[in-house]
Every structure is written in C-alpha cells, then in structure tokens.
Design brief:
single chain; about 525 residues; alpha/beta; Endonuclease, Chain A; Immunoglobulin-like; eight-stranded mixed beta sheet; seven-stranded mixed beta sheet; about 30% helix
C-alpha cells in the first residue's frame, strides 16, 4: 500500500479523453468542476488566474467529451455550472465510489472508498484501487463493469446517456477472461456477504486470519431486529476454518477524562463476539496516519477493507464502498437497500493498514449521536430542459406543500397544489445547472438534465479568445497591461451589440497610431 494522489489518477497525462462516468455518494460540484473535470479533459488554464478562459475551454471540451455523474439525491447540494449529465438517485442509497475514465487507448477503472468531496479526496484516510485495461490485452473485470452499467441503465432509465454508452461499447470489445481482480456489487443476485464467503471457500490454501477495517458497522438496534451480521459472518467463516484469527479495526479517539476510546461502533455486538469467539481481537485506528514520507497527517479513517490471509502466501481482499453494515453487505437485486461497488482481488501483495492499538471492549465508549430517522421526501423525478421550456416531473403522492422552485437564487414558481408535471415556458438557462425545491422545513436540489446539449450555447461558449492582428498591435503598443487584461476586454467587446463595422470605424484611427508606435518600439 502506498500514498496515492487521486488527482494524479484522474489527470489524462496527455491521453485523449473519450468519455467518463463518475459514481459517488457525496458530490462537491466546486471540487469536481475546478479540479477533476479539467484534469480529465486536459485543461491547463488556472481558474484563479483567468476564470473566463478556463470556463470557455471546459465548455468547448464538454461539447466533444460526454461526462456522466451519478450521485445520491440526499447528498446533492447543487452548485453545478457546466453542461454534463448528472443523475441523482433517491430510491436507494447510492453509495459506490467508482470512476470510469475512457481514453482513446485504454479505460481507467478507479474503485475507492472516497467520495467526490473535499473530505474524501483531501482529508480522510481512504483506500483507492485502480487498473488500466487495453483492447489488446485480456481483462477479468470488463464483464463485471458492463453488468453494473447495464443494470444502472435499466434501473434509472439512462439508456440514451452518451457517456455510459461509450464505455459499454468499449467494454464489449475487451477480451474477457476468468480470474482476479473481480468487480462485485449489490447489483447482482447474490449479496456481497454471500459472495465473499463463496470466494473464500474457492481459494487455495487454509485461511489463517481475517482483518476487517470499517468506519461503520451495524448497530446494536439492528441486531435486535435482524440478528447480528458480524456474528452470522464469523459463524460461517469459523465453520470452515475453526482456527482463523480475526482482527476488527475501527476509528476512535482517546478521551483522557473518561480514560476510554470514544467510538461509533456496536459495543454490545463486540462484547458478544468477544464472548463467543476465542481468536478475535479489536483494534482502534488513531487519526494520526504516517505517510510513506513519514509525515504524520491527521486523517479520519473512511477506508473499507476485508482482507483474508492464507497459508500459501496469498491474500484475498475486498475494498471499495462497502461498510460492514446490513444495508451494504446484505443488499442484492431482490432486496436492494444500497448500491455498492467493490473490487475483489487474490494476490500475494499485502495491504498494510496504519498502526493500530489493541483494546479491550471495556475500554470503548459509544459516542451518542442524534440521528434523524425521518427521511425527508425527495419528490421530484426529473427536471428536463429542451432548449426552450423546463419540464419538472413530480412524485405527486410524496409532495410537500406549499413549496417554491428557485433558480439562481430567485423564486420562479410557487406550488400550492399537487400536480405530476410543471412546464416553465421560455426558461432562460443561466450559469447554474440546478434548481432548488424549498419547503417549509427543508430544501433539496435537482440537477437540470439537457438531452440536446449540442444545441445549447451557454455564455461560456460565446467567448472568443483567439487573438487577431488588431489584438497583437494593441498589446505591443501598450494598450493592455497583460494578456489577461486583453482577454477580458475581448470578452467585453464580444458582448457588445453595436454594429461591427461601426466599431471598426471608431477604432481605425487609434489602431493606425498604435501600429506605428509598435513599429518604432
């Protein structure tokens, strides 16, 4: 395991981008549009130095390269300003962190525990797995990814989204073989719980130990309702390998006054495990992680890992989005609570976790958190802009009234009665690409979908940064203090509604004088 910079992984490195699909639970539009999007598209302009040129370059590239983001509706906070497809999911918890970047020569697959948020990509301790697959090489995971994407197409009615079509088209050309690594998900007939147990049974060698690293587990309340996931899992494992050693790792912070570790973990279940199984130990992961440069960096553990060691030197590990919770581990097509994606690998490489501290269950104390279990309804199915009108479709039976529809911080409509559809005629698309639904005690954002993006000309696309002879003469003559100022003035002049011939007449004499001044210099 080594320190990996996620932003380097999404940088195209000079490779021609074709399409991309980003699947994430949380989504930070600012982070995505200022760092990930330009890195993948190969935009080198700095938005802090010249935002207008930066936006123009992004907008132009998005005309050529389709991008799709799928994220969880309840974690979406708006903020999008560019024309790319964004689907939000509210029927299930959409929890994968799977990023598919298609270039002309290869497909880069990134499966991680990190969301596209500042916490996920900048501050947390996360696990990232990546793999490049080429058409002239055999691959084990092409069919797995294809099945996930096809499921999402059908489930969320996104067959016409170009980005996902491009990646499926590529995957179908890859020569698939059996073996590892494998991409597994809850979009399957078998749960991840069942799949892991089956894969352990198939592996050669005797299982010596299992390590589980998870920031979240089932809680004691769930155990009373469904029985313990951890107990059930270890019962099956120990039935096959009675002497297996089990290590459970989770984040904690030490409280000097309490003389205990404060945790968000099911202490009741941990105590039951400790009483039931002889070879089980518990470890707390501190916030101070040491990178390979030996610098101690405070990070909150958010990585997820299940690692099984065999006596033949091989290790089977699962990493990705899967927490050790019932909703993640037991979900499957017939009982879909969470959508999760992970990668399963069988290799001699070993994943080393940071230093942990072994603790007794009696040294743990639960941090009591107030959890609002009343999920607020996300009652908008879609908001589609066809270039003229904005059509908003509602889940009429879930609507909360009264409510307001806001766009660019302005109320554009007030709803006082339930309806299944609202058409806002002659909708003017501005910089913002989302609408906000505001109810009395909560609000949520809805991304605007634009099927015919090729026909939409945004303000970013109206800019022209190509220099002509006039601009060069003006710059040499000292009219502009810098190229940045020149570009800013070009934008302003492009927005002038005056006749272009009139502009030429006005500036002809001044330009001629600047021309001679430039020659003399």
């Amino acid at each position: 395991m080594k320190y990996t910079d996620f932003f380097e992984l999404v940088d195209n490195g000079g490779n021609k981008p074709i399409a991309a699909v980003f699947m994430t639970y949380g989504f930070d539009a600012g982070l995505f549009e200022h760092h990930i999007l330009p890195a993948f598209l190969g935009i080198v302009d700095d938005p802090n130095e010249n935002e207008l040129r930066f936006r123009n370059q992004i907008a132009l590239r998005l005309k050529e390269v389709p991008i799709l983001v799928i994220s969880d509706a309840n974690q979406f906070n708006g903020g999008r300003t560019f024309l790319y497809d964004h689907i939000v999911v509210d029927t299930e918890t959409f929890h994968p962190k799977c990023y598919l970047l298609l270039y002309k020569e290869f497909l880069r697959v990134i499966i991680s525990s990190a969301n596209i948020t500042k916490s996920g990509l900048c501050y947390n301790a996360e696990l990232v797995w990546h793999y490049d697959t080429y058409l002239d090489e055999e691959a084990t995971l092409s069919n797995d990814i294809n099945e996930i994407l096809s499921f999402l197409q059908t489930k969320y009615n996104i067959h016409d989204v170009q980005a996902i079509k491009e990646i499926i088209k590529y995957l179908k050309q890859v020569n698939r073989i059996e073996g590892f690594p494998k991409v597994i998900s809850t979009c399957a007939k078998e749960s991840i719980f069942t799949r892991i147990i089956e894969e352990i049974k198939k592996c050669k060698g005797i299982c010596k130990s299992m390590t589980i690293v998870s920031p979240f587990f089932e809680n004691d309340k769930e155990k009373a309702m469904e029985g313990s996931l951890l107990v059930s899992f270890f019962n099956e494992l120990i039935e096959i390998y009675p002497d297996v050693k089990i290590k459970i790792c989770f984040p904690a912070s030490f409280n000097d006054l309490e003389n205990k570790y404060m945790v968000n973990a099911p202490i009741g279940i941990f105590q039951e495990l400790d009483n039931k199984f002889k070879n089980i130990n518990f470890f707390v992961v501190p916030k101070e992680w040491e990178r390979e440069d030996e610098e101690a960096v405070p990070r909150t553990l958010h990585g997820k890992l299940i690692m099984v060691e065999f006596d033949n030197g091989y290790n089977l590990y699962l990493t990705g989005s899967v927490n050790f919770t019932n909703n993640a581990m037991r979900s499957k097509i017939s009982k879909l609570n969470n959508i999760e994606v992970g990668v399963l690998n069988y290799t001699k490489s070993k994943l080393f976790i940071p230093d942990c501290t072994k603790v007794a269950v009696s040294k743990l104390k639960v941090i009591e958190k107030d959890i609002d279990e009343n999920k607020k309804p996300y009652f908008v199915e879609s908001a589609i802009f066809d270039g003229v009108d904005l059509t908003i479709k509602f889940k009429e039976d879930q609507m909360i009234l009264p409510c307001e529809i806001k766009y660019s911080d302005h109320v554009i409509f007030k709803l006082i009665k339930k309806q299944d559809e609202l058409i806002i005629n002659k909708f003017s698309l501005e910089k913002s690409q989302d609408i906000e639904i505001v109810c009395n005690d909560y609000s949520f954002f809805v991304p605007i979908l634009i099927p015919n993006k090729d026909e939409i000309i945004t303000e970013d696309l109206k800019l022209n940064f190509e220099f002509d002879m006039k601009d060069i003469i003006d710059y040499l003559a000292g009219r502009y203090r810098s190229l940045i100022e020149l570009e800013r003035m070009k934008r302003l002049s492009s927005q002038m509604k005056a006749d272009s011939n009139l502009s030429i007449n006005i500036y002809f004499r001044q330009n001629l004088q600047r021309f001679y001044k430039a020659l003399s210099s």
